[in-house]
Automatic annotation (TrEMBL):
<feature type="transmembrane region" description="Helical">
    <location>
        <begin position="502"/>
        <end position="524"/>
    </location>
</feature>
<comment type="similarity">
    <text>Belongs to the G-protein coupled receptor 3 family.</text>
</comment>
<dbReference type="InterPro" id="IPR000162">
    <property type="entry name" value="GPCR_3_mtglu_rcpt"/>
</dbReference>
<keyword id="KW-0325">Glycoprotein</keyword>
<feature type="transmembrane region" description="Helical">
    <location>
        <begin position="469"/>
        <end position="490"/>
    </location>
</feature>
<dbReference type="InterPro" id="IPR017978">
    <property type="entry name" value="GPCR_3_C"/>
</dbReference>
<dbReference type="InterPro" id="IPR028082">
    <property type="entry name" value="Peripla_BP_I"/>
</dbReference>
<keyword id="KW-0472">Membrane</keyword>
<keyword id="KW-0807">Transducer</keyword>
<dbReference type="Pfam" id="PF01094">
    <property type="entry name" value="ANF_receptor"/>
</dbReference>
<feature type="transmembrane region" description="Helical">
    <location>
        <begin position="345"/>
        <end position="365"/>
    </location>
</feature>
<keyword id="KW-1003">Cell membrane</keyword>
<keyword id="KW-0812">Transmembrane</keyword>
<feature type="transmembrane region" description="Helical">
    <location>
        <begin position="544"/>
        <end position="566"/>
    </location>
</feature>
<feature type="transmembrane region" description="Helical">
    <location>
        <begin position="371"/>
        <end position="390"/>
    </location>
</feature>
<keyword id="KW-0675">Receptor</keyword>
<feature type="transmembrane region" description="Helical">
    <location>
        <begin position="305"/>
        <end position="325"/>
    </location>
</feature>
Length: 630
């Protein structure tokens, strides 16, 4: 504060009224100094204030002179009478300046005896100032008048600038014994005492000298005390230094003041005043003073997202292997032959591949793994549904042909069926090879999939370069086969269960369609999720495993059950003519009840036998249960 003592008092009172006691730490000029008047009844607000006073000494000669002054020997000072009344609290006659005072001045009062007296602190400087002017005039007179007494003609009209030059050139010991000199700017050397207004434990307030200035600062830090009682020096700056990872936003027009702004998001502190964005594959370090690589993750085998699909897949592989082994062992039995051995092995191969793809989808991506993913992702489904489509198409053509004539339709032998199935599968393989040629398989790290708002949670995902569109294209052909197979299953739903596998195939396809209809919204609905990689991989692998499980459970588990637990039913049955079979199929409503009376599997696929062993007989064509798969 640079203010007079009245303004100082008002400012302290304002701080007190606004409950700001202890909030401000005051640093004041010599106008406050060590005065009592500004702090009376405001001691707590002023506590800790640091003030200065010019270093001064008491001039004993002035004390002797001033104490000897009286009304009789100091008449030249026109203000002395008023001082006399104020100092001795009395009135000088009827013309006194202190009306209403009950006491009259006698003129015999003595300064320092009948009143308190303390030498004014600036007496030393007033005396030194007068002596400086006298020394300057003496030096100027000596130079201009050459020792002639009185004013010579050259000093009759003094130039102020010339006199100022002589004043700045003086050098003498002042009244306190200290040298009086001036620098090139006309300033005397600074000599100050530094005070702090302190309240001691006895609740008494006083100004305590804590240091001084004589050409440099001398400060006793241990003597300083603050309102909180903490000896630590409080911070007193416009703005605190910014922390690591924060930039300075300078206040306009005030270069020493700034706001600290944290570098947010993926920005780091590039300089004192700037934040910059980290490269796309990096994130800020913990202090935000630089960038570090984003951790790269993949689907781990121990992750819950992988454990469940792997468990389902392993169960499916074990079950599929068991069915294959059972069929191979009982390869020449009627049920295995009636199921169509060749087509069954193709279908079981597709089911096995559907389970096995789970391991490729979870394995660490590299060029080899990515290549196998492209090949086998849709191949397992293609094997399964190509075989099922060939079967349902065969059933449909047989009964449609039978309604017109007793001649068997073409291309229903096992060899023809295999040729048709592998022709359908070759389309899938051709598409994969074209994909290989256009876009060779490779891996990439996707930093956008898990680029969260908080860089600490950002991760790069190691994956094969297979986009969602490529995935749909890879599975699209298999889904087309599945839908076509479902259409044929619907068309053959009227064929009696006793005569063929149409109904189990139909139930298989209906269930599979439901599974994949549920898969689509889950797969694409999580495209923006941070857990996208985990959800989509798990959903895809489980959907493939469930599709394979439906086919395995509905088409082959009943046959395996009969083969293992009811071998008495796994025996050849009588032959029936193709014409008889077709006639029975057209009268399904009448034969349904009759079919339920026969043992399971008795005439389930009697319609198929004659297509495989076309006899040379021109009169009647027979189909046998035993040679169905030959």
């Amino acid at each position: 504060m640079f203010a007079n003592e009245d303004d100082i008092r008002r400012i302290l009172d304002a701080a007190k009224r606004n409950n700001q006691t202890g909030h401000f730490l005051w640093v004041a000029s010599d106008s406050w100094g060590s005065k009592i008047s500004p702090v009376i009844q405001q001691e707590r607000v002023a506590e800790g204030a640091v003030t200065i006073l010019p270093k001064r000494a008491s001039v004993d000669a002035f004390d002797r002179y001033f104490r000897s002054r009286s009304l009789s020997n100091n008449r030249r000072n026109v203000w002395f009478a008023e001082f006399w009344e104020e100092n001795f609290v009395c009135k000088l006659g009827s013309h006194g300046k202190r009306p209403g005072s009950p006491k009259k001045c006698t003129g015999l009062e003595k300064v320092g005896r009948d009143s308190s007296y303390e030498q004014e602190g600036k007496v030393q400087f007033v005396m030194d100032a007068v002596y400086a002017m006298a020394h300057a005039l003496h030096r100027m007179h000596r130079e201009l008048c050459f020792g002639v007494p009185g004013l010579c003609s050259r000093m009759s009209n003094i130039d102020g600038k010339e006199l100022l030059t002589h004043i700045r050139a003086v050098n003498f010991n002042g009244s306190a014994g200290t040298p009086v000199v001036f620098n090139e700017n006309g300033d005397a050397p600074g000599r100050y005492d530094i005070f702090q207004y302190q309240i001691t434990n006895r609740s008494t307030a006083e100004y305590k000298v804590i240091g001084h200035w004589t050409n440099q600062l001398h400060l006793n830090m241990e003597s300083m005390r603050w309102a909180s009682g903490d000896p630590t020096v409080p911070s007193s700056v416009c703005s605190m230094p910014c922390k690591a990872g924060e930039r300075k936003k300078v206040v306009k027009g005030v270069p020493c003041c700034w706001h600290c702004e944290r570098c947010e998001g993926y920005h780091f502190q590039a300089g004192e005043f700037t934040c910059e964005l980290c490269p796309y594959e990096q994130r800020p370090d913990q202090n935000r003073t630089g960038c570090q690589p984003i951790p790269i993750i993949k689907l781990e085998w121990h992750s819950p997202w992988a454990v469940v699909p792997v468990f389902i897949s392993m169960l499916g592989i074990v079950a599929t292997t068991f069915v294959i082994v059972t069929f191979v062992r009982y390869n020449d039995t009627p049920i295995v032959r009636a199921s169509g051995r060749e087509m069954s092995y193709v279908l079981l191969t597709g089911i096995f591949l559907c389970y096995a793809i789970t391991f490729l989808m979870i394995a660490t991506p590299d060029v080899c793994v990515c290549s196998f993913r492209r090949i086998f992702l849709g191949l397992g489904m293609c094997f399964s549904y190509a075989a099922l489509l060939t079967k349902t198409n065969r059933i449909h053509r047989i009964f449609e042909q039978g309604k017109k004539s007793v001649t068997a339709p073409r291309f229903i032998s096992p060899t023809s069926q295999l040729a048709i199935t592998f022709s359908l599968i070759s389309v899938q393989l051709l598409g994969v090879f074209v994909w290989f040629a256009v876009d060779p398989p490779h891996t990439l790290v996707d930093f956008g999939e898990q680029r969260t708002q908080d860089p600490e949670n950002a991760r790069g995902v190691l994956k094969c370069d297979i986009s969602d569109l490529s995935l749909i294209c890879s599975l699209g052909y298999s889904i087309l086969l599945m839908v076509t197979c479902t259409v044929y299953a619907i068309k053959t739903r009227g064929v009696p269960e006793t005569f063929n596998e149409a109904k189990p195939i139909g139930f298989t396809m209906y269930t599979t369609c439901i599974i994949w209809l549920a898969f689509i919204p889950i797969f694409f609905g999580t495209a923006q999720s941070a857990e996208r990689m985990y959800i989509q991989t798990t959903t895809l692998t489980i959907s493939l495993s469930l599709s394979a499980s439906v086919s395995l459970g509905m088409l082959y588990m009943p046959k395996v059950y009969i083969i293992i637990f009811h071998p008495e039913q796994n025996v050849p049955k009588r032959k029936r003519s193709f014409k008889a079979i077709v006639t029975a199929a057209t009268m399904s409503s009448k034969l349904t009840q009759k079919g339920t009376d026969r043992p399971n599997g008795e005439v389930k696929t009697e319609l198929c036998e004659s297509m495989e062993t076309n006899t040379s007989s021109t009169k009647t064509t027979y189909v046998s249960y035993s040679n169905h798969a030959n």
